[in-house]
Design a protein that fits this description.
The chain has 212 residues and is of the alpha+beta class. The chain contains 7 helices and 7 strands; from the N terminus they run H-H-H-H-E-E-H-E-E-E-E-H-E-H. The strands form 2 sheets. Strands 1, 4, 5, 6 and 7 form a 5-stranded mixed sheet that branches. It has a two-stranded antiparallel ribbon with strand order 2-3. Helix 1 packs across helix 2.
């Protein structure tokens, strides 16, 4: 929001688009922010605008989704990493675990073996830092990067560099864990996909199985 206001202040194209005169004062970013929260919070207005723009691009044959390129980028949250609490959360079971167990047991039964018993025991937990300023973000740390609260945006683009879809997740969630939701939507919206290009961060047996 701050960046948008800066652009409106100095960019004639922005002023022309929204109908501001060259010398007309631009509202403070906090005014923009309050209106944004009051009018658009808990709505899907931005998703609908995104979908409509994409629909127009597709209608005029600008999009070539025969090959799709997916990658993730991290967006730093406006949250002080010192303002956080320690929380113990339950580790999520891999959502494909049930399918994996089912296929293993079917294979065992085909050889006359008994199915494996479900694993028993208390749920596994892990310790995380949760921001008190922006609880929806996650603590991100990669390589030489300094730890910070951030978000991860997995983005899918076509061969002509159009963004086809995206998935925003907390920064402490691995790229491969955010892949499924994005990929399921892509297969529905872009049935012509023939090739999927990913970097090594997505190279897990489950993801490879889906793509193949």
């Amino acid at each position: 929001m701050r960046q948008t206001i800066r652009e409106i202040e100095v960019n004639n194209a922005y002023r022309w688009f929204i109908g501001y005169e060259l010398t007309e004062p631009v509202p403070h970013f906090s005014t923009f922010g309050k209106n944004y929260a009051r009018r658009f919070k808990d709505t899907d207005i931005f998703e609908r605008i995104f979908a409509r723009v994409l629909q127009e691009a597709s209608k005029h044959d600008f999009i070539d989704a025969s090959a799709v390129f997916i990658d993730a980028t991290h967006i730093k949250a406006r949250a002080n990493k010192k303002k956080a609490t320690n929380e113990i959360i339950e580790k999520q079971t891999r959502h494909y675990q049930a399918q994996l167990d089912k296929e293993i047991n079917e294979d065992r039964e085909s050889y006359g073996k008994k199915p494996l018993k479900p694993k028993q025991g208390p749920p596994q937990t892990r310790n995380i830092k949760k921001s008190t300023t922006d609880p929806e973000s996650g603590l991100f740390h990669k390589g030489e990067h300094e730890q910070c609260f951030a978000y991860t945006t997995n983005t899918a683009c076509d061969k002509n560099n159009f963004i086809l879809d995206f998935q925003v997740s907390p920064g402490n969630l691995h790229d491969s864990q955010s892949f499924d939701t994005l990929y399921e939507r892509l297969l529905t919206s872009q049935p012509e996909i023939e090739t999927v290009a990913l970097d090594a961060g997505y190279k897990t047996p489950w993801i490879m199985k889906q793509i193949i």
